Amino acid sequence: MALLRSIATVGGYTMISRVLGFARDILIAAILGAGPVADAFFVAFKLPNFFRRLFAEGAFNAAFVPLFSRRLEGEGFEPARRFAAEVLAVMVTGLFLFVTVLQIAMPIAMLAMAPGFRDDPEKFELAVALARITFPYLLFISLVSHLGGVLNSLGRFAAAAATPIILNLCLIAALLLATPFLPTAGHALAWGVTGGGIAQFLWMIAACRRAGMHFALPRPRLTPGVRRLLRLMLPGAVGAGVVQINLMIDIVIASLLPTGAVSFLYYADRVNQLPLGVVGVAVGTALLPLLSRQLRGGEEAAASASMNRALEFSLLLTVPGAAALVVIAGPVIVTLFERGAFGAGESAATAAALAAYAIGLPAYVLVKVLGPGFFAREDTATPVKVAIGAVIVNVTLNLLLMGPLAHVGIALATAIAAWLNAGALALILRRRGHLALDARLKRSLPRIAAAAAAMATGLWGGMVVLAPLLADGLAAQALALAALVTGGLVLYFGCAIAFGAVGRDDLKRLLLRRRPPAGA
Fold this sequence. Notes:
Blueprint: H1 2-32, H2 36-74, H3 77-104, H4 106-113, H5 121-134, H6 137-153, H7 158-177, H8 185-210, H9 224-239, H10 242-254, H11 261-296, H12 300-327, H13 329-337, H14 344-359, H15 361-375, H16 382-405, H17 407-431, H18 439-465, H19 467-470, H20 474-499, H21 504-511
């Protein structure tokens, strides 16, 4: 199935990136721990990433891909290329101005981003300095997102999916090689971020040229096509980026808590992002251009089938992922991060946040899957109404839970808001007749839940048996964690097959899929 092959392509490269990301974060935890420099860097890194995920990867792709696909299908390659070039010219101009203004106003932006840092002037000044170094990354990574949308619409997913690998390599190199020559390791990481953005942009330019997309920038003009894109983008900035808005709110409120809260949430979110990135981002990236083409061709039945299979595939992997992260959050964090400046106290605090975030994991992914049901129909306004409600719930729960649960309450609030967001999107699509669960999905859902419950029980028992190894040195901990993960996978998929949640042939096609064509 083309959808599964595209998902596997994006997911495979994302998995490589996440593994390198773990290596990066292990180094950061060992060198920076969860102290003031770590807090300052994570906030500085979060600022350009927030705008990237909110506008570039969220609203922009949701609006651009259907418009570009329409031109590609209806008018041909050259009109589509001209439209992409017009958008690129406006993006370069607008982003340059935006980055320049934020560089000047960075102290004000930092007050909004991390108001709690005001009580520690040294940490506040460091965060401002690091943010000024990292913020140009927004310009380059937004252009990368645009070029990635072009390639994805052409059915070429590999180049865009591989770009995060470049960033992680740049960050690891900066941390290891530049730290001795700069004031702090945070400065090295900040320069690595901007350098990584430049490298990713050059990579994507080369990939577009290989695909025949040569861009000579025209004079930036608000053509009818660009104005249509902007009209679709503005409301979609909230709808498509609700998860990022909620995570940003987490950071703002966490800055009001004692030092370390920002770092605990960062490390926990990084682990939680593995299944979210591999499954959620992969499915959403592959599904949007496919739905756009099917709906443009009047293939409503095919679009419905694609949505059902995307939902089934996502839940098949994220429900057990959530259950596993809740049960074995402690061993995962201890094995990955507890060394150097990152001690047992930091591990316990981060593991508690990870378990809370993981409760919302299927919902985070469902939002990625359900969003294209609106975006492919060029409806970016409806998700905004849902997003506003989710943000209000998140803020309210943050304020209610941060007192008794500290940073764990912040993570839990985000998970609850994500479930409300996903549920509302699904209900609206169903009422409009755009989402109807087919017999296969209805049959699979309770069986997936039962298999995940059996796996969670097995993991809990495995932790009891392996407790001596989990309390030993790094090698023993890694061996025990590998045994838990492997055993959990075998138990889950064994139960999934036995319960009828997935067929042996489906599993075989998933695991032994044909390699996609080069450049796909």
